[in-house]
Specification:
The protein is an all-alpha fold. The chain has helices spanning 40-50, 66-73, 83-91, 94-97, 110-118. The protein is globular, with a radius of gyration of 15 Å. The relative contact order is 0.16.
Length: 119
């Protein structure tokens, strides 16, 4: 499976409390024909709106990896992964490899955590 593109076409950050995405995401490794996952547009809006670079994002369900894919695609979030994914990403195309690891942890550095708690 080849990558179509990394970003959605005509994406904009939602400005209201009611979001509607009649067409599912069809970029990167997302499939628009599978309705079992949650819309990647929702994930992208939540990550952009409520997280900052280096923040911890934990998706305890992982499922099809929608949250994980969107966060990794957004380079400015500077994610760090467990050793399993770091090793595998060197062997394979990382975006195509994302599957199921029961606990995928994104972590902030101790310095960033201390700075945030002081402000």
């Amino acid at each position: 499976m080849g990558l179509k593109r990394f970003q959605p076409e005509n994406f904009y950050l939602e400005c209201t409390t009611v979001w509607s995405f009649p067409k599912r995401g069809n970029w990167a490794t997302h499939r628009s024909d599978y309705q079992g996952n949650w819309s990647p547009q929702v994930v992208r809006n939540l990550i952009l709106r409520y997280s900052q670079e280096g923040d911890t994002i934990l998706d305890q369900m992982v499922g099809g990896g929608t949250t994980l894919k969107e966060d990794i695609i957004k380079v400015q979030h500077n994610c760090k992964a467990t050793g399993f994914w770091v090793k595998k990403s060197k062997l394979y195309n990382f975006l195509l490899l994302i599957m199921h690891e029961h606990l995928f942890v994104f972590q902030k550095s101790l310095k960033e955590l201390c700075l945030r708690s002081q402000s």
